[in-house]
Here is the input.
Amino acid sequence: MYLTDIAGIVFVCVTVNHLGLIGAVEQTIAHEIPVVNCPKCLSFWTTMLYCILQTDAHTVQVLAVSLASGYAAVWLELAEGYVDKLYNIAYDKIYPTESAADAETLCPDSGMPAMRTAARRSTGPAGGSTESKQRTVDPNAGSDPGKRQKSKGVTE
Here is the structure.
């Protein structure tokens, strides 16, 4: 029973980080929590807390299980990253675009370019957040970038 619980803890810790839910929580509380930004750290500490509170294991056993869960989190994180890459490749084949900039502005429901943009938040390599702005162009405007006019709802 404990093994399935620990496997579930590792899966939840890695997936929550992979989906970016930790970043959303940090934005909501307006405070960065360094330990939860790393799926391995979160898996290690959550498993350790679970083992201390729910099992009769000795300290060495708790440490061994926690380290093993952190190591399993590394491989699960790699697997989720690979599946994400496969998804992006399949999405590009289903909804082909002319350029990489267009791919970021497509509406996932219809495959049509989005007309409104907003600042997009992503996680940097060290777990910190970086802000990047997307730029969309009015499809009704002329092809010459110098003659384009801003239309309602389009930001640069």
Summary: The longest strand covers residues 119-123.
